[in-house]
Amino acid sequence: MKAKYMTGLAVTVLLTVGILGACSKEETKGKIEDGEVTEMSTSLSDGGELMEQNIDLKDDGSFKEIVTGKNDPKVKLEVTYKTDYKDDSWDDVQLEIDKVKVVEVDKYTDENNEDFKGLVSMHYTLENKGGDDIHLKPNEAALVLEDGTHIKAEHFADYWDDVFTKDKKKDGFIYFKFDKANEIDSIKEMNLKFEGRHKDSDKDKVDHEYVVNLPLTPAS
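RE: above sequence
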């Protein structure tokens, strides 16, 4: 598989800076308007930055597609990873992933009335240079913590269009949900698989599989 990785980390925490424990930090207080602090930033020794705010999920452009009706939870903690992943191992197809965002929310209720505390948004671009339409769908995903713990993430299948038209480029977001979100600031990697097939192939056939082990580490 031909794949390239380059990662950097921009961290935004929307709750409290107290979770940082032993990280060295320097706080800069924000403005006070109408008796409330509108912004407070904390610089970390690893180069990341934490910011205390109060926003709804709908106000984050990376998740707007999965915010429906009253299902608009408050964002408590947010981590954004800038990545540079490219894979051209499938003939005439190039897959790119340039951004991963993980958020902890107070509660997100899905279409099956199941509650989740964590959400992932992954921005991708796929260019199909071939002469046939293809189908591609995420199969499984997991977040890997610094201590080696794997947290399974479920794909939002209802928000995924798996058809990629021939000789076209398409970009968008892939969404995942998970139920353990109290350690998302210690995520070091995301592992996921995609299964692809040509338009005329049997629906159960896999013509190509992407195995993506995407490192998510702080920028030096």
